[in-house]
Amino acid sequence: MKSKYRILLIEDSQPLTNLYKQYLSQEPVELVCMETGQAALDYLQKTTPHIVILDLKLPDMLGQDILHWIKKNGLPCSIIIVTSHGSVNTAVELMQQGADDFLEKPVSAERLKATVKNHLEHARLLNLVEDMKSSFERNTYQGFIGSSLPMQNVYRIIDAAAPSKATVFIAGESGTGKEVCAEAIHRQSPRAKEPFIAINCGAIPHDLMESEIFGHVKGAFTGASSERKGAAAQADGGTLFLDEICEMDLELQKKLLRFIQTGRYQKVGGSKEESVDIRFLCATNKDPLQEVAAGRFREDLYYRLHVVPVALPPLRERGDDILAIATNFLITYAQEEGKRFTRFSPEAEVVLRHYPWPGNVRQLQNVIRNIVVLHDGDTVSIKQLPPPLNETLSDQEIKSLSFAAAPPQVEQYISDSDDEDMVPSDIPSDIRPLCDIEREAIQRAIEHCDGNVLKAAVLLKVSPSTLYRKKQAWETDEA
């Protein structure tokens, strides 16, 4: 089995190279050996190892030159300097310039294995942190805004599916961003520089759809005064996105199936077959299996298209993404309209967060545009929200939810108040500020998990990024 970790050894002495190979022969590493600095640089331009073991004296250049090249190019690898007894001071200087460790010749087996083990553990922890960042801290992604767990799952599927030619079937309610998803897949794919052609199968009359996809020859039907290229020819080499695929006529579905299977088609009214290289993406806001059961969508076409499914979550299931998307729209439209809006009031945030958004992101976009066009100010108040948003919650519900959603503002109000009657004089000893109780609970969970924040987050049923953010805020306040 191929090793997970790779070490680059840059050493011109063959006996020493053989010795180091013997030392590391039982370790779970792949050892790549280079005798010259130039050979090492050629390798590093193509591959980034986890560890570089670097001799200072090479036949064609100094080890310092390779260290400086690695640091200049930002390669994320540990650099271990190998030096003779008389050059320890030089090694220390190189550590100040970016080296991570040094070994003094003659290098013992125990010392080499212990050093390698320590730096591989460091690499493993770095990879774990990067994986957690990738999973929990991608706030934006190829046109999407949001860091909620449902969207992180969508991002991961796109990352995995984009490099292949497999057909992706995108499902989701109207307004959830199915075309944004398709464009993201295209931009992440090897076809990114080629055309992305989108057709909405529900917006084009059935009798014109075949011509839209395959094109037509002159005189093919009334009004066909000249030959026309269809979407298939336009997308050659790139991606063809068929939105609302379940709206397509059954007879055309049969022709589409053959086209997907063979890559060949005929223009409407033509007799010549043409061939193209296309990656197919499709989407629907319906349940495709129900459409198959109802006889409106061909079962063989469904299974041909349904290779990699992506389910886009409705906006109401995306938590705080709602506020992030709304704020982005608010700032964008305010700049376009010459308005001053930059934020929402706590009460308006509560309404936005708890409204069910049947029209999803598209509806939210229209609501924010309405607010910006009809009003002005620094902060969007609850009175500026258009119907039906200003009718969804009672005043009492808004007040209770605002307190839960925005404790910092409440704490600030209480601390700044000059009305001593608002604070009872006989506060029981077991009543403490909510923020103190939260901090204590988080710290106890982390201690219980021996400092493992990921495990603590699982116990507390919150996102690890939430714990990291709160810890960082506490540490900043204490600094």
UniProtKB/TrEMBL annotation:
GO BP term, example: regulation of DNA-templated transcription
Domain Response regulatory: 6-120
Gene3D superfamilies: 1.10.8.60, 3.40.50.2300, Homeodomain-like (1.10.10.60), P-loop containing nucleotide triphosphate hydrolases (3.40.50.300)
The Sigma-54 factor interaction domain, residue ranges: 144-373
Alphabetized InterPro entries for the sequence: AAA+_ATPase, AAA_lid_NorR, CheY-like_superfamily, Homeodomain-like_sf, HTH_Fis, P-loop_NTPase, Sig_transdc_resp-reg_receiver, Sigma_54_int
The UniProt record lists the keyword Chaperone: no
Keyword Kinase: no
Alphabetical keyword list: ATP-binding, DNA-binding, Nucleotide-binding, Phosphoprotein, Transcription, Transcription regulation, Two-component regulatory system
Gene Ontology MF terms in the entry: ATP binding; sequence-specific DNA binding
Residues with the 4-aspartylphosphate modification: 55
PANTHER family tied to this protein: PTS-DEPENDENT DIHYDROXYACETONE KINASE OPERON REGULATORY PROTEIN-RELATED, TRANSCRIPTIONAL REGULATORY PROTEIN
Name of the protein in question: AAA family ATPase
